Amino acid sequence: MKRNEAKQKAAELLAKMTLEEKVAQMVQVPYKMVGREESIRWAEMGAGSFLHVLGDDAREIQRVARKTRLGIPVLFGIDAIHGHGLNDHATIFPSQLAAACSWDPEQLETIGTITAREVATDGLHWTFSPVLCLGRDTRWGRVDETFGEDPFLAGILGAAIIRGYQGEDLSDHEHILACAKHYLGYGEAVGARDACDTECTMRKIREVFLPPFARAVEAGCATIMTAYGSIDGTPLTIHRPLLHDVLRDELGFDGFVVTDWDNARSLVTRQQVMENLEEAAVAAAAAGNDMIMTTLEFYDAMLKAVARDPRQLRAVDDAVLHILTIKYEMGLFEQPEKKGRPGCIGCREHTDAALEAARRTVTLLKNEDMLPLSRAIRTVAVIGPNADDIQAQYGDWTYFSHPMPDKDHPPVRPFVTFREGMEQLGDRHGVRILYARGCGHLPSPEDNLEEAFQLGAQADAIFFACGDMIDQIGESKDRADLSLSGRQDELFARLAALGKPICTVLISSKPLCIPLEADRSGAVICAFNGGMFGGQAIAEAVFGEFNPSGHLPISFPRHSGQVPVYYNFLPGWHNGKYCDLPAAPLYAFGEGLSYTTFRLENLRADPETLQVHFRLSNTGSRAGTALVQIYQQDLVSSVLTPVKRLIAFTHGFLEPGQTEEMSIFLAREDFALINAAGKSVVEPGQFRILAGFSSKDEDLTETMIRLS
Ligand code: NOJ
């Protein structure tokens, strides 16, 4: 059903509803927290939505809901964040950050399509994904959930995964609702302290944090989740200018808004801006929240508030209209349960796609002729805490972690860790693989650096698999220190002292500080959380079975004190560096090597057509995919503008020796800035256009363009 017709139907139904039925529609019940009996009671009361309930339990709730007076179907939401990972048998994709290394919207769309199909097959309707916060202060515990640091890239990839989740038609049985979150500025909380205040002006909000959400709305994202935190002292839960004026009036968002977990109560208990829940309920609804996640007392509080002041009904009516419209548009009244595709959860087609997605995440950051492994290497030692740790490889949001951490959950096959991948490929290539964990993520009596050292001594080459573990990732897991924890650096130093070729493999939720490893390794691979076949993909890259093409969507600091170190900073820093650290990050946004080399030349930009032309050549000896990034710099502007700003990118696959003439269309708004009055304008004048293979000056070629 089209949105307008759905709206009409929703309005007709709304007219028949009692106040109690309306307020109940706004309530989202946490199934796992309250349990089955309490959930059934809420279904009988007409609760609009439940979260974290799977399969048959969801079906039971739906049956109860359908028997209520108006039989309004329930909407089931789930955190299918990188695949439908709370279901034991689902396909687990790379984390958002890892998948962003592909810089490939089609890849993200495929992940979305498959995840949606699996969620729908579980009878559920809605994923709380994607995260469109930016990972700029990498001490934040949730950087793994972002598409990295750049608003443009995050917007493009976010829109793509939304298209994958939602498809063309919300009533399609294999598609589900997406939820762009967390609106807004959540990743920028001061000190990277999860859910703290974001000290930010509205101008900055519009310039940096709003654009990915604007793209999500443009892509038709049906729902938006409000952030936990506050901006300049105003909780997002009651930020009507952002939730209503900007989101609905300016961006034209026409779906519904859900709060984050218990946001309504937080207004009283944590943020202390309301005296009681009744005030909080009124304020949350009035600001533009349509559905209230998990604050069940909202129901009584809102009923009381309307009884006291009937004008509050208006916000309730608006909210219920928004929710019912989406339920109609999804066709839930005719067919409340999505059918999905029976048998597809974790099927071969899907897991093959997970392997392909993992290959696309592999990002080569250094290679002094160590990779792919030469035939002279006969024995390899795989060492380190993340070589054989599926929990660390998955990262957050699978059955091991959220929403009810279960670290003792038995790991469910299929998956391949890095060690296993190396063993499988070693067999095939006649290379002996030795393994030792060496140490954990935290110092422990089981650490055995000596054993690892002895093992390394027997090998021709060493692979050091380091990173973080799930206790160091996610909500409320912000880190003050981003260096490798436990005895990992010490282990590396001992192994490096053997003087053998050594490759560092970073399997982590985010950039960690690895200056020692970067300096002393012959090769560095970043894989982040690669999902079920993350380990296999790295091993395949090591053995040269494919040519890696990942590029960083985020910069790597040399030291925690260098954070934030994003590429698109504003100019003006006297001396441009700390006196005790080099200016540049350890690895910059956009970096990523290949087993071949590329050249970009003959860059031209046409101010009339806004087209950028260039010649791309493969100058190495292997076929490979280049990622060409286009940045602009506004040479003179009324407010400070970034030293570089990503405005376009494209991939080119080239055979060795092949040359292609390529072009990219830019848009006029790629040159816009947000002026001091908060308006988006293109100021006439000169712009530098930079094109190349990373955000680093030395990887870029430049030309000028004048816009009038
Ligand atoms: C809290 C998280 O902030 C949000 O991202 C998630 O979707 C909800 N909880 C539901 O689990």
The major sheet is characterized as:
6 strands, mixed
Q: Architecture of the largest domain in CATH?
A: Alpha-Beta Barrel
User: Are there runs of 5+ residues with pLDDT below 50, and where?
Assistant: none
Total strand segments = 26
Bound small molecules, by name, code or SMILES, are:
1-deoxynojirimycin
End-to-end span in angstroms?
A: 45 Å
Count helical runs: 20
| CATH class type of the largest domain | Alpha Beta
Overall residue-averaged pLDDT value: 97
CATH superfamily of the largest domain: Glycoside hydrolase, family 3, N-terminal domain
Write down the CATH topology of the largest domain.
Answer: TIM Barrel
Overall morphology: globular
Helix percentage = 25-40%
Layout of helices and strands, plus pairs?
Layout: H1 3-16, H2 19-25, E1 27-30, H3 31-45, E2 49-51, H4 55-66, E3 75-78, H5 96-100, H6 105-121, E4 126-127, H7 151-166, E5 179-183, E6 197-198, H8 202-218, E7 223-226, E8 230-231, E9 234-235, H9 240-250, E10 256-258, H10 263-269, H11 277-287, E11 292-293, H12 298-308, H13 313-329, H14 348-361, E12 363-367, E13 379-383, H15 390-394, H16 418-429, E14 432-436, H17 449-457, E15 461-467, H18 488-496, E16 502-507, H19 515-520, E17 523-526, H20 534-542, E18 598-606, E19 611-618, E20 624-634, E21 645-654, E22 659-665, E23 673-674, E24 680-681, E25 685-692, E26 700-707
Parallel strand pairs: 1-2, 1-11, 2-3, 3-4, 5-7, 6-8, 7-10, 13-14, 13-15, 15-16, 16-17
Antiparallel strand pairs: 8-9, 12-17, 18-19, 19-22, 20-21, 20-25, 23-24, 25-26
Helix pairs in contact: 1-13, 2-13, 3-4, 6-7, 6-14, 7-8, 10-11, 11-12, 14-20, 16-20, 17-18
Residues 51, 79, 128, 181, 260-261, 403, 475 line the site of 1-deoxynojirimycin.
